[in-house]
Amino acid sequence: MVSIEDVAKEAGVSIATVSRVLNGSGYVSEETELRVLQAMRKLGYKPSLTARVLAKKRVFNVGVLISTRISELLPTELGEFYRIMISAIENSAEIYRLNVRIVNFEAEEIPKMDGYIIVGSDMEKEQVESLAKSSRVVLLDHYIEGLRIDSIVSDGYDGVYFVTELAISSGFNTIAHLHGPLKYFGFRDRYNGYIAAMTKHGRLPLTMEYDELHEDVDTALKKLFRDRKPDLIICSNDVIALQALKKLQEWGMRIPEDVSIIGFDDIPSAAKNNLSTLRVQKSEMGLNAVKRLFELLNHQSTHPYKQCVYATYVKRGSSLV
């Protein structure tokens, strides 16, 4: 029988690190967490907490539903956020005896499955509701108000609220928010955190919507700078932040002396480009989505809940905050 010690040896980590991954307690880097999950999958390790249920030898079929937008992003640098989540799902699903199939719900008919993990916020509320009537459903990186379907999200509201307040207390005067389309829950949640923090301190919000997939950041930044120059721009994801950072440098601005830039997500490119950001625990969110669906499929803790994973501020060279 494979033990936790075997997993630790295979992954090249301590037993305590494997335990933290299994229990979702304490900090483990995404790279290490994925290595541990891959080791578990390779060795066929089954967590003892699920041994009784796994002993029944029931294999559940699970659809991981993604949109065309996410499907097209996955092979690109812009898709790092979702690639990490989906990799965590795939590596942990086998551990929990879930047979996973990735499905583009906009390009093919959704097959009948025991349960679904819906990644991102592209699926319409009515379709989510319809799936939930006949199968177990967990939303990942999405939450639908009033629907009461299990959701695993990063706490974008709190993250942006925290860093906005931190900037205000650090003496920043003009703090702007460059955000993605507010039809997406994640962007909307982060936007609301910025507005709440600015309002609390009697500051005038300065916002600009920008679709990084279909628009030119040059135009968005020119509109943002039209009335007054911000000394800090908080962006609703790292892709937007990196595009803004590059464009401002092309304009001859010094980062962070002239303008500080903060992103959100902490994709691998953020560290490579010395970008300050709010770290989303993407791998942990994917693992937690699998754990939650496993519980629902085995009729454990069936009352739905929304799990918010706090984001952590990571200061690098792009900001003075």
TrEMBL record:
UniProt KW keywords: DNA-binding, Transcription, Transcription regulation
UniProt keyword Cell cycle, yes or no: no
An MF annotation (GO) of this entry: DNA-binding transcription factor activity
Origin superkingdom: Bacteria
Domain HTH lacI-type: 2-56
SUPFAM superfamilies xrefs: lambda repressor-like DNA-binding domains, Periplasmic binding protein-like I
InterPro entries cross-referenced by the UniProt entry: HTH_LacI, LacI/GalR-like_sensor, Lambda_DNA-bd_dom_sf, Peripla_BP_I
Statement: the UniProt record of this protein carries the keyword Transcription regulation: yes
Coiled-coil blocks: none
Protein name per the record: LacI family transcriptional regulator
